[in-house]
Write a structure and sequence with these properties.
The complex is a heterodimer.
Chain A lengths: L1 E8 L3 H12 L4 E5 L7 H4 L5 E2 L8 E2 H12 L5 E4 L3 E6 L5 E5 L4 E9 L5 E4 L29 E5 L3 H11 L4 E5 L9 H12 L3 E4 L2 E8 L3 E8 L2 E6 L2 E4 L3 E4 L10 E2 L2 E3 L13 E3 L4 E2 L7 H19 L10 H4 L1 E2 L5 E2 L11
Parallel strand pairs in A: 1-2, 1-8, 2-5, 8-20, 10-11, 10-16, 11-12, 19-21
Antiparallel strand pairs in A: 3-4, 6-7, 7-8, 9-17, 13-14, 14-15, 18-19, 22-23
Chain B lengths: L3 E6 L5 E6 L7 H7 L21 E6 L9 H9 L7 E3 L13 E4 L4
Parallel strand pairs in B: 1-5
Antiparallel strand pairs in B: 1-2, 3-4, 3-5
The chains are: A alpha/beta, B alpha+beta.
Chain lengths: 350, 110
């Protein structure tokens, strides 16, 4: 079981910065994220795109901002549960929270801050009527264990980087790889496109374009897919069908936590501390809503700061504290490190 | 700089005639959001980078006024769902005086 002061759900920029503000107040943080890496949208959607409205940075690439945030918070030693989704949240009798992920990891915290951005990134599923019946019975949206596909027939659909990369990877493992895309053009790194071309020329990948998977057949388990190509419809026998059409954010399980939801976002008290209708449970960054809400990273930073002050007051009722400036008081890391401004030299000039 | 008239059919089939400013460097996705013609979280999900297709629209009238599709828009639509011959991404349609009278229908999501 993982225990911490503040459990942060979502390791995007807002969640990461909250670790810093919590650290200044001597509170430890642990972050959960559905994605296998930190950074949220910035890493998943646009790591190489510039952001121009981070105060003090005329331009910074999204990926670089995430790296900087990680550098800024590392002395506060945040813990991470990555690649897992927060599934259930329970308020225990002593007022603490228990959050269990889809993989069964148990977290206990004195306060919880949901910094989930647009929600949990889930695979975009093609609109094939009976696809739900075959999920995990031949239809896979993620490739968790490549060995699973050894000597099997695999059909991959999609036209982006993940479809290209996995076709390349599985070409060496599977007995047969067919890549299906609606167009002749692929959108991916030039290197990947060229590799797929080479593997196709070697006969290791079968390319089917422009074509579309329109049906799934099987008896309890997938046995064939229906393909439409050049106005013709035909079946192709296969062991696995892997549609890779990118990810889409969904509010997911937290919609069932008793939170007040409005317009796909969590309603918070913005006059004070971004607390939700459940005391001790906060929502910060793009996932919350209040009158005048703006979904901006810089607003998320502000919200994270106020949330941390509020949690401090909750956890330490009556304990005196005033906001300190890092320039004056420095930063004491949980790892024993200390950062501080250089002292001015006081010396007589003769 | 004059506002332009647009006709937008929402996902429930209701038709909205709206005015859109041409001097705020807006795009069609942002106009739809500003008039709240689609639920937040189901439109402009990626922020307008041609990366999610949540702002896909079908152009009903005025397609000849629109500039050609860029590579990013073309590639995204090749992976999106519910795509038709008249599909475009709202985030890639800039609000200029050239598109006065454009008529679109917001495509289903996701």
């Amino acid at each position: 079981m993982i225990t911490t002061d503040i459990l942060i759900i979502g390791a995007g920029p807002t969640g990461l910065f909250a670790v810093f503000e919590a650290g200044l107040l001597k509170m430890k943080c642990h972050l959960i994220d559905a994605l296998p890496q930190i950074g949220g949208q910035l890493t998943e959607l646009y790591p190489k795109k510039p952001i121009f409205d981070i105060p003090g940075f005329p331009s910074i690439n999204a990926g670089e901002l995430v790296n900087n945030l990680m550098e800024q918070i590392k002395q506060f030693q945040p813990g991470f549960t990555l690649g897992e989704t927060a599934q259930t949240l329970t308020k225990l009798e002593d007022g603490t929270f228990e959050v269990i992920t889809n993989k069964g990891t148990v977290h206990r915290a004195k306060a919880v801050a949901i910094a989930g951005g647009l929600g949990t990134f889930e695979p975009r599923k093609p609109t094939i009527e009976n696809i739900g019946d075959y999920e995990e019975k031949g239809v896979e949206y993620f490739i968790k264990e490549p060995e699973h596909f050894r000597n099997k027939r695999v059909v991959i659909a999609g036209g982006g980087d993940s479809a290209l990369d996995w076709s390349i990877f599985l070409a060496e493992i599977a007995s047969e790889v067919t890549l299906i895309h609606r167009r002749n053009e692929f959108r991916g790194a030039l290197d990947s496109v060229e590799k797929v071309q080479a593997l196709k020329d070697l006969g290791k990948i079968k390319l089917m374009t422009p074509a579309e998977v329109t049906g799934i057949k099987g008896d309890g388990k997938l046995s064939a897919i229906t393909i439409e190509k050049d106005g013709e419809t035909f079946d192709l026998e296969t062991d696995y069908f892997i549609p890779l059409f990118g990810l889409t954010p969904k509010l997911g399980d937290l919609a069932n936590w008793g939170l007040e939801i409005q317009k796909n976002a969590i309603v918070v008290n913005n006059a004070l501390d971004y607390q939700t209708n459940i005391p001790g449970l906060y929502a910060i960054g793009d996932i919350n809503t209040y009158p005048g809400k703006l979904k901006l990273i810089l607003c998320g930073f502000h919200e994270a700061t106020l949330m941390c002050q509020s949690v401090y007051n909750r956890l330490n009722p009556g304990k005196k504290f005033v906001l300190k400036y890092t320039t004056v008081s420095g930063v004491d890391g949980f790892d024993g490190s200390r950062k501080e401004a250089e002292k001015a030299v006081v010396k007589k000039i003769d | 700089m004059q506002d332009i008239n647009l006709k937008i059919t929402d996902r429930n089939g209701a038709i909205h005639e709206v005015l859109a400013p041409t001097d705020m460097s807006m795009n069609l996705m942002e106009v739809i959001r500003s008039y709240e013609l689609a639920d937040e979280g189901t439109i402009g999900v990626c922020g307008g980078m041609a990366m999610c297709a949540s702002c896909q629209v079908y152009v009903i009238a005025g397609s000849e006024k629109l500039p050609e599709m860029g590579d990013e828009e073309d590639a995204m639509l090749s992976e999106a769902f519910h795509v038709k011959d008249n599909s475009r991404l709202g985030c890639q349609i800039h609000i200029t005086e050239d598109i006065e009278g454009l008529e679109v229908m917001i495509a289903p999501y996701p």
